[in-house]
Amino acid sequence: MSRFEGRVAYVLGGGSDGPARPGETLPMGNGRAIALRLAAEGATVVVGDKVLARAEATVEHLAVPGLAVEVDAADPGSCRAAVAAALAHGGRLDIVVCNVGLSGREPLKVQSIEDWDIASDVNVRSHWLTAQAALEPMLERGSGAFVFVGSTAGVYSSRRSLSYEATKAAQLAVMRHVAVRYAGRGIRANAVVLGTIDSALVRREFGDAPGAARASVVPMGREGRPEEAAGAVAFLVSDDAGYVTGQSLLVDGGVSAAWPIPPVVS
C-alpha cells in the first residue's frame, strides 16, 4: 500500500519504553506502531521521543528512511524545535500525530499539584504547542491532518487518577478546537480514544504478565494491540477519512458500549 507516498508525518511520542510482548524483539508502543504503519504505507516519518535512542530504534525499523529527534514534551521550546526539525527534514508536514502522555495514580483526595502540573504539561500543553507549530505551514498549503491519541479515561472515569482523566478530556477539547476552527482551510483533526492496549507503556506501568485481568472487562475478551491503534490512526489521516473531522474514534474492544462492566471471561 502507498496511501501516504510523498507525505511527511511527525509522530510525537514515537519511541517505546517498556517490556516487550512475548516473542517480540522490538518493544511495541502505540507511537512506535503508528510510525511503522505510516512508513509502511509510504510516508516519510519523523519520530520524536524524550530519549533519542528510543526514537532511533523506531527509525531503524521504518520501511522508508526517516528521522529521529529528541523532544522533551514538558518543555515548550523543545516541542517547537522538534516540529521545526521535522519541517526541515521533510520540507513539509502533512500528518501530525500527538501520542505522548503520562498516566497518574492519584484520586482527588490526594491529588498533588506537582502530579497535576506535569500531567497538564505533557498530556495537553505539548499537544497544542505541537499543533500550533505545525499549523501555519499546513494552512499555507491548504491541507493537513492531526490525530491526538487519547484514552477512554478522558470520556469515562476509572476512579483512579484525576490528573490523567482531566488532561485526557482536555486533549479532546484541543482536538475539537483545531477541527472546527480550521476545517474550512483544509485542516482535519481527530482523536483515537484507546481502551486497554497491550502496549509497552501499559506493561511497564501495570505489569508485563499476560493481561487476563485487564482483558476481563473487555467484551472482546482480550487487550488491544498497538498495531490496531495504528490502523485506526492510519485511517483517520488518510484520504479515506477526508470527510471526517472533530471526531473521537473509540478503539476499546467494546468497553464503552457495555453496561454493566462485563464479567470476567472464564
Automatic annotation (TrEMBL):
Keywords: Oxidoreductase
InterPro entries reported for this sequence: NAD(P)-bd_dom_sf, SDR_fam
Name the record gives this protein: NAD(P)-dependent dehydrogenase (Short-subunit alcohol dehydrogenase family)
Family membership noted in the UniProt record: Belongs to the short-chain dehydrogenases/reductases (SDR) family.
Lineage: Bacteria, Bacillati, Actinomycetota, Actinomycetes, Pseudonocardiales
Domain of life from the UniProt record: Bacteria
Entry annotated with the keyword Hydrolase: no
Organism: Actinophytocola xinjiangensis
PANTHER family, sorted: DEHYDROGENASES, SHORT CHAIN, ESTRADIOL 17-BETA-DEHYDROGENASE 8-RELATED
CDD domains: SDR_c
GO molecular-function terms, A-Z: oxidoreductase activity
Coiled coil: none
